Amino acid sequence: MKRRDFFTNVLLTGGAIGLGVSCGRKIEPSPAKTEVALSNLPSGDGKTITEPAKQIPILAETDVLVIGGGPAGTAAAIAASRAGAETYLVERYNHLGGLWTGGLVLPLLATHAIDKQKKAKQVIFGIGGEMSKRLKDLNMSISEVNPVIDPEAGKYVLDEMIREAGVKMLYHTWGANVIMDGNTIKGVFVESKSGRMAVLAKVVIDCTGDGDIFHWAGETYDEMKYHIGLVHRLGNIDRIDTEKPGYTKMEIGQPTPIPSVNWVNMHGQNDQDGVDMLNLSRLQMEYRREIWESVQKIRQTPGYEQVFLLDTAPQLGVRMSRIVDAEYKLTLEDTMTYKAFDDVIGVSGAWTTMLYKGKKVRKTERPYWQIPYRSLLPKKTDNLLVAGRCFCFEQELVEDTRIIGTCLITGHGAGAAAGLAVKEREMVRNIDTGKLKKLLTEQGAWLG
Amino acid sequence: MARLKKIAQRIGLRGLSTIVATLLAIPFAWGGLIGFYAWLSPFIMLNSVFLLKSVVWMNGVAFFVLIITFFRKRWFCRYLCPVGWSCDLVSSCSHRKNFSVQKIPPLGKWMALSSLVAAFAGIPLFILLDPMSVFNGFFAVFSGEMTIAAIISLLGLPILLAAHLFFPGIWCAKLCPLGGLQDEVVQLKKLINRNRIIESEPRQKADSGRRLFFASGLGLVAGLLLPRFLQSEKRNYICPPGSVPASIFDKLCLRCGNCIKACPTGILKHHTDSEDITAWMIPEICFDEGYCLENCNLCSRVCPSGAITLFSPDAKRQLPIGLAEVEIRDCLLIQQTECDRCKTACSYEAITIEAEGGTFQMIPIVDPEKCVGCGACAVICPPETISIIPSGAI
Hints:
The complex is a heterodimer of chains A (about 450) and B (about 400). Chain A has 11 helices and 25 strands. Chain A is of the alpha+beta class and about 450 residues long. Chain A is globular and about 70 Å long. In chain B, the strands form 3 sheets. Chain B has a two-stranded antiparallel ribbon. Chain B is elongated, with a radius of gyration of 25 Å. At the A-B interface, α1, β1 and α7 of A face α3, β1, α7, α11 and α12 of B. β1 (about 25) of chain A pairs parallel with β1 of chain B.
């Protein structure tokens, strides 16, 4: 053999031998670190005392009892009453509208979404739509899409609508415990300046936002720790002197229907327990101080001397706490694919960007999404409905389910269902969803 | 059944193979099978193995083909090669019936040899000319938007085919490095079989031996010297997770587009760089519409050259491709607008929203230790104020 032939072939076989000595190639994960679970901080030292049993006066025996007068509770009470049921509404503060008014979270998100023709469409109708329209007629809301309202006007309008619907209003009253007969809820103990009383009802709607009622009734639920904030408002925004020497631009929040007033959102501390009273008390005090100091800083800035702290919100901004386990869990996929439900009770909109299957879906591309009646029906308890931010959905959806618009929709649906159940003498679990849809449509709701 | 057999006979095994190859090359939800034909090419496999000095299980497919070729001359060309089939089809339409490829030197053989030797030293010289790579690259353009790089990738196959109108049969016989490799393997067989057939033309044989010697020597020199000239700077764009270092990647990547076609979120694009021509058409991540999924390793599974190292989905946390950077000035939280999208989008708990200077003003903070640069936060950010800056490759 020639030397060069030999050389050529040696190079080639060398490569082939290289194959033999080579090793497999794949990147595997290194062993994961074990995470140490954080123990819950103890509240109290575990001591208890027995409360003596006592007779509780029955305040009323009614058809429908709604606990919580936020957007969901108010819409539910109005819908039930309009459907012909005698309705009681229990509210712990002195106003209706919950976080929308008392929490100073003024924008009604999300009134619009994209329809199947890829056009922006209004989706919030029905009782929520009526509220929005009345506020607009009063000149107390700005912008057509996601209107920002005046909180006092909101409280006034909601009061008027409750009055017109003939709902019996119990302000300054807390739901304190459930009255159960086996798996059926029979009413709720309420607590107030008048002491503990019972309200018996054929149907109870849990609109507490934190799901206090289903928690007491023994339902299972997800617990979600989320950031809690405290909104405040600034006055004299129109008297800021931008010409003044030393003026620098400060963040002073977003406009409200009152030209001289802005509302200022707060993200607040992360991963907070929204149903721990000690925690809420701590946050309340910390936030009030932070807001005060921040407003002082603004007032010391040249040009901002006239600006003042109008108010901090009467309600702490608990965004999420409990999510009930109901007959159906609404999924992210449902909301991205125009999923149609036989038992649809309403349609809600979208206000922020989402990820779906790894891809970006801008708020201007987000489909409207139906909410099924089953997602308001807790699994165990009979004659209990859940509306508002604690109805049943995947946590990925939380940005769209916890907002005012969705609460108005689920509230309306639950109220109408309760009214129908009373009228038909059916358990809420067994009502004819065809009739429910008809009733909702008559009440002005849009079902997609 | 008989009818099917008849059709099969009419189309021929290679015709059927071409149909299968085309289907698998079209950007369709084939998962790990996308662009499978590139795994069949022993030329790609040997280049990859010689350069990386390591194997993945899928290399076994091409090794199997290599062994068959050892016993059956040009087996791959005759029964499987979709490019060969297309070339023959175009050649049959050519008017230059009297054109003979006999006079043209066997460039493919030399390219194959020098490429393999060079690969051993650090640069697989002619890997881009592999027919499977050219074939798959043609279909990559249908997976994404038209860019100059994508069009260049598209042009390879049509140019090759058009050449056959003027020089029928030239590619398979003389130019194809994969074909050349197969011929060389048969030579090897003759070497092992001592009782060779007596050379009818000893003069020509000696001649070709000299040329092959030069080819391999040239490959060795090129492999040792060229990488120094082609050393890439640090990338200012993002490559898929598990990518080998830029200096090797640019040379090893086949530009077959398999990863671009396989990516379920469609974030891989052909790269164009006016500065560095050697990096043209390699895959680049653009976080415009999607992000790099937490549990996905498709690009590494379909990469026939090993430019993207195979990794298990669980290892993704250890394969950072970049780092999220927030332009705080445009963050919604600064404007006291409701948002925490980046924090919720992050699967690696790399973003926290923290107080700035003890006030209620909160801002997103990125933990560079935890961030892998998957881009979820950048994609979801409503004011689009988060960007991913590239980190060094592994």
